[in-house]
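Subject: Predicted fold for Adenine phosphoribosyltransferase, 189 residues

User T.R. writes:
Posting the sequence so we have a shared reference for the thread.
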Amino acid sequence: MSKGSQLTDEQKDITKKIELIKKNIGLYPDFPVPGVSFRDTFSILRQPNLFNTLKSILIDAVQTHFMEAECIAGLDARGFLIGPLIALELRLPFIPIRKQGKLPGKVTSEGYTKEYGKDTVEVQTDSVTPGMKILVVDDLLATGGSLEASCHLIEKCQGDVIGCLVIIEIESLHGRSRLHVPIHSIVKY
Ligand SMILES: O=P(O)(O)OC[C@H]1O[C@H](OP(=O)(O)OP(=O)(O)O)[C@H](O)[C@@H]1O
Ligand SMILES: Nc1ncnc2[nH]cnc12
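User M.O. replies:
I've generated the structure tokens; pasting them so everyone works from the same file.
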């Protein structure tokens, strides 16, 4: 490594924390359908110290890459485990992007295809203030179908998607290429 690219103590600390998180993510071959290698973050949530470490990594990522966020939107269901955590810590509002038929009131919908099936997501139309700078969070980016639909949904309600933050990115599926906003992933496979 050249002198100019030496890591600060803070960066080394984050790198160590990320390695620890990566080591503790579960792997289930052929779930939920043959051919899918399922990456399971519930193994982190079972261990409070690790969950706290993950929380600090996520907060650091938002403060480093998405400082301008005015609101956090999270995807049903696993994005709900981290979205409110980030939003509350940063005293920002949280908006749920829900699977179809679960949200009351006027909703905006968007259909999509993901790594192992088809789905539709919805948002309460009046939960998005036009022009609001929104960071979309989820546990995992695979084909990108879920995040692409969620970003589109927010944009249909005139929200300004400033980026997406995920814990895991499955790089071989190239989901990132479907998204036109900055993407930050913590752990890559
Ligand atoms: O990048 P993609 O190919 O779209 O796949 C990623 C999405 O798939 C999973 O959610 P899922 O729809 O299985 O819902 P869940 O959180 O309720 O398990 C995951 O939590 C992401 O949201
Ligand atoms: N490989 C995978 N592991 C966990 N969740 C997923 N959602 C879509 N693809 C997934």
